[in-house]
Amino acid sequence: MERDCGMAEDKSLLKQIREKELEMSVKVDQARNEADHTLEQAKKESLALITTSEAEGKKAANEFFLTELEHIRAEADRVQAVAKEEVKVVREKGEKNVPHAVERIVTIVLSG
User: String of b and e for 13-39 (b: at least 16 CB within 10 Å)?
Assistant: First the structure.
């Protein structure tokens, strides 16, 4: 009888171990599922962050481009205005010298 009692205890102990193993297996599966979910969530959040960062970077680059383009246009307008003024000054000087140049040319042609 002692033997039967010992075997019953062994079976009972074995049964408890199996139950604990099953319990731990369920907990491991739950932890794995939670980890997978957390990883998936982190991937989604990082993708959203990358997308937002890229959009903000493009917006900032475009704003910088437009600002610099405006500066360049303003500088080009200034250079063009200066060039027009220089052309005007040279033309006025040339027009002042036309009568003198004509007189000189006539003198050279007639004397020659």
Answer: eeeeeeeeeeeeeeeeeeeeeeeeeee
Cα–Cα dist 84/92, whole Å: 12
From the number of C-beta atoms within 10 Å of its C-beta (0-12, 13-18, 19+), residue 53 rates as exposed
| Total residue length of the chain | 112
54-102 residue pLDDT tens:
999 999 999 999 999 999 999 999 999 999 999 999 999 888 888 888 8
Rounded distance, CA 19 to CA 25, Å? 10
Rounded distance, CA 37 to CA 33, Å? 6
Of the CA atoms within 13 Å of residue 33, those in its CB half-sphere come to: 6
